[in-house]
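lol forgot to send this yesterday, sorry. struct tokens for the thing we talked abt
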């Protein structure tokens, strides 16, 4: 392994001495205070708590193969050792030597028991993401510990991080790899590693964040993560004394538009893709426009900014599923009157379970499903047309995910059923004549379905129980309204009333709501 590391840093035969912290002493550009907070007393007793699961006793002799909950995120956190790095930060804050001593014991134990390629070593020990998250923690420790085992481990980590075959370009893991390589390069004064890290993170940002500021990972929550990590990267570059690439800073800023439009009036991110429904981004500014179409596959609209009672919707289209996306094309979410009305199944965990698989499926989203046809995974959906006025917006989306043209209507001879997942605070209190009335205490909303093109109410809605995720490893029971089979139908969601009046003429459809009448053309094909 050391021969591989020598090659990665370009050592030649006339320079036999390996890099050593005793002779190469650059700045620590990723301070220990940047690591997630820990329960210090708990860690000092040999216990750790990760991802909201109950504490686990590691004991005095740590078994690094532990996986007590069969949970990928728990095991990743164990080997990322940010908890060890935070102990270094607590030493810096308090001056208590026992914190540094314990951090050194933990790191030394990990290095000794986890040789790369060693028999019986956990596969998470040298997986690319734990390597990226662990390296800055080891760098922080190196400010106080000058030992060959630590120097050698930093060089080995840098060799892995700089290996192009192991690099996740254009991915949030790749950004973490770049931050880690930058930290080691600055600490060991290796400009080659530093410059490689800065160049890669700039190129990756241009690949992963488009010109409109949308992240291609298909989950707004990762827009929040990448924005935060790019902030870490930029601060580390500055601490290293290098120039901050203007393009890198600009791409980070552009993410703010994406995240702000994806944030509902109650402050939570809309749970699209692998975005937990309880994510609350903070500090993301917004412009004046209330509607935004992102060409990579998102429509976001709202009635007002900075008003918790305002309405918000999202629509999905674009390239086929990838990375953290779901099969949610043509899917709609709707939040109004301070309530989730139409929701997604959300993100539950990264575990390979039947429930996780279902949450990513079309049936877990508010989409039209073609009766009797097989779904074709990864199908792209096109935004065929749009009209975005101040008081009304309309969009036409189309794909062939079921082998026929699907635009929320289907050709003659086919039929579709619309799935509508209802917010968990709502219950169905009435279902008749094409009207499903939802209640939250005294508050009411109506889901009304009309046959097309007659615009007459169509009955036969089914109400089914389902479970959606409200956060990591959390589920709640709610209901799904399933429309009757039809070639084409129109669904109206009217918040604030149990009995909205709908009038139809040749020129327009009028829906009388508590906030006043709403008009639209009787043909879905008209703008």
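and heres what i got for the seq, position by position
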């Amino acid at each position: 392994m050391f021969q591989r590391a020598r090659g990665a840093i370009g050592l030649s035969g006339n320079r036999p001495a390996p890099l050593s912290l005793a002779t190469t002493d650059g700045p620590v550009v990723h301070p220990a205070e940047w690591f997630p907070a820990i329960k210090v007393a708990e860690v000092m007793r040999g216990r750790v708590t990760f991802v909201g699961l109950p504490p686990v006793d590691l004991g005095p002799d740590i078994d690094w193969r532990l996986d007590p909950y069969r949970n990928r995120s728990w095991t990743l956190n164990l080997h990322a050792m940010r908890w060890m790095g935070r102990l270094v930060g607590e030493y810096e804050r308090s001056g208590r030597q026992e914190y540094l001593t314990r951090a050194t014991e933990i790191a030394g134990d990990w290095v000794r028991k986890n040789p790369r390629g060693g028999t019986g070593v956990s596969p998470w020990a040298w997986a690319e993401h734990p390597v990226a998250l662990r390296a800055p923690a080891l760098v922080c420790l190196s400010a106080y510990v000058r030992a060959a085992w630590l120097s050698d481990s930093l060089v080995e980590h840098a060799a892995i991080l700089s290996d192009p075959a192991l690099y996740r370009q254009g991915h949030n893991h790749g950004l973490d790899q770049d931050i880690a390589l930058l930290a080691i390069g600055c600490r060991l004064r290796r400009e080659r590693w530093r410059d490689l890290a800065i160049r890669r993170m700039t190129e990756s940002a241009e690949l992963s964040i488009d010109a409109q500021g949308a992240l291609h990972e298909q989950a707004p929550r990762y827009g929040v993560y990448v924005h935060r990590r790019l902030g870490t990267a930029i601060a580390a570059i500055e601490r290293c004394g290098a120039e901050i690439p203007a393009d890198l800073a600009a791409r980070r800023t552009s993410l703010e538009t994406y995240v702000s439009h994806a944030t509902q009036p109650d402050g939570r991110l809309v749970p699209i893709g692998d975005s937990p429904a309880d994510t609350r981004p903070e500090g993301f500014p917004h412009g004046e426009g209330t509607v935004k179409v992102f060409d990579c596959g998102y429509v976001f609209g709202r009635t007002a900014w900075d008003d918790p009672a305002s309405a918000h919707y999202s629509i999905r289209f674009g390239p086929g599923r990838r990375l953290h996306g779901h099969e949610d094309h043509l899917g709609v979410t709707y939040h109004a009157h301070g309530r989730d009305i139409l929701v997604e199944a959300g993100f539950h965990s990264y575990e390979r379970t039947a429930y996780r698989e279902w949450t990513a499926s079309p049936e877990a989203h508010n989409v039209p499903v073609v009766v009797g046809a097989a779904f074709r995974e990864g199908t792209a959906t096109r935004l065929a047309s749009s009209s975005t006025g101040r008081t009304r917006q309309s969009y036409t989306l189309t794909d062939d995910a079921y082998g026929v043209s699907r635009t929320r209507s289907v050709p003659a001879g086919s039929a579709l059923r619309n799935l509508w997942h209802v917010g968990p605070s709502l219950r169905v209190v009435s279902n008749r004549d094409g009207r499903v009335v939802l209640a939250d205490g005294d508050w009411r909303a109506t889901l009304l379905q009309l046959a097309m093109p007659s615009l007459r109410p169509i009955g036969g809605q089914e109400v089914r129980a389902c479970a959606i995720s409200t956060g990591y490893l959390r589920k709640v029971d709610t209901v799904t309204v399933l429309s009757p089979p039809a070639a084409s139908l129109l669904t109206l969601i009217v918040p604030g009333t149990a009995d909205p009046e709908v009038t139809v003429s040749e020129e327009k459809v009028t829906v009388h709501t508590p906030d006043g009448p709403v008009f639209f053309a009787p043909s879905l094909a008209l703008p």
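The longest strand covers residues 462-471. anyway ping me if u want another try
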